[in-house]
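Researcher: Here's the sequence for the chain we discussed earlier.
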Amino acid sequence: MPNSIAKIVHLSHRYARDWAIWDISFDITEKGVMGLLGANGAGKSTTMNILCGVINQTEGNVFIDGVDMRKNPVEAKRLIGFLPQKAPLHLELTVDEYLTHCAYMRSVPKGEIYKAVEEAKEKCGIGHFSKRLLVNLSGGYQQRVGIAQAIIHRPKLVVLDEPTNGLDPNQILEVRKLIGEIARERSVILSTHILSEVQATCHDIVMMAHGRVVFADTLQAFNNYITPNSLVMHMLAAPDRDVLMALPFVQQVEQLDGQRWRLFFNDDKGITERLIQMSVENGWQLVEIYLEKSSLDGVFAQLSKKQS
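Model: Thanks. This is the structure I predict for it:
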């Protein structure tokens, strides 16, 4: 079993009368990437802010490498690098000026600041923009600078809140690669509402819904736990929609184009084999069929049903 770098124990927090999170517990292991997955409003950002000491929890405890965040916040925060949803950039500064400022703020010894800045720039691939004003960088490179400030003091835990939010597809791939490289040396936890994000980046998953943890395990266990609920069929001689809807295991039918159909089903036992056989018997000329993983809403529904 890998060691834990952080422990969240029976954590709850209330804003006024409403509980944002309730009785949350999970561990973050040394090295690798953990994904905190949930729809908007699930309690992810509240959990992240408590984990980083930005706000104090109503109940429960947070330990960073054994240090109690509530009792020893300064010592615990030294071990954490944090990138909130909106990167805390000073756009009027150059990359070097900003990262030097962050190193001072993070109590990097004066004689080590230059080296720390250079290491962070190299790790994040922004060395060629050292003298560039932050305001003149693209969104993707601004996000890289935001990640650089989170690792400038060589923390044991890096916390990234929606790190690919607002980026284009190429920038998302670049940031995912960067996160993977950082996770080789330290622990990373990232929050997202995008199911494919954790499946592409993370080794472990904690899923939240309505302020509670509904799943906490490895990515492999997650993929095994969640069953497909739809498939796509490409047929050169597709039948009418009514024919597909009349199949006893089909709940809904969606036409994607003239020859491709999505079927939602309630019983996955041998469904692919049955449809292939039907295509042969009825001359549908099936050329492709594949199962699809559930949407995020579908995953929540499945988890809730299995836990009830």
